[in-house]
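Researcher: Here's a chain I'd like modeled. Treat it as a single chain, no partners, no ligands.
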Amino acid sequence: MSSAKAGANGVDLEAQAADGKSSKLSAEFLLVATGRGPVTSGLGAEDVGLQMDRGYIRVDAQYKTNVPGISAVGDVITFEKPGHQQLAHLSSAEGVILAERIAGHEFRPINYDHVPGCTYCDPEIGSVGLTEAKAKERGFDVQIGTFKFGVLGRAKIAGEIEGFVKIVADKKYDEILGVHMIGPRSTELVAEATLALRLECTVEELIRTIHAHPTMSEAVGEAAHAAHGAAIHA
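Model: Modeled as a single isolated chain. Structure tokens:
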């Protein structure tokens, strides 16, 4: 979106597509989501000498700060490299790991490439792992498979036919690198994709996993087939 102005009947918008062409549209309302910042003011972080970065608390891989005895997790932390996601389920997972460490138990660090993201809009969005572009940046020889929800019987029954599932995989070892979906139940279906990445699942293994019919989850299995050449019911 390149501009937004209040109009007589709402908001007049102008958007620019990837090819450089501009288009205009009008909407009743415009929702602006610009992200969130850390709420650390008033905590006395600077007084105890915590290392801060634009209001975020700097931590290491074990969530230790630069001050002995003080650790931090969740939306207020940052690592040496940017990109820590502000997600409730990630904060909870970090809290569990920190509690295990403090209690002296064995703990395993989080693979931040495997943190699922959900957008509760219509249609829903679920995503986990590397995008096609990011996978190529990391040097993978990428293969992809996509499948539209609208083909599924369950989607037609529910009248929710918009969207698709896309699988990003490594061609050499067939390992699934990312799964991205827009469509019905995507915020639920991403759980299967997250487990697949956690277990270093291959596309072949996902193809051989039987998905019940009629369900929305069939789109995940069909996308796996597509990554190997052709979806069964495309």
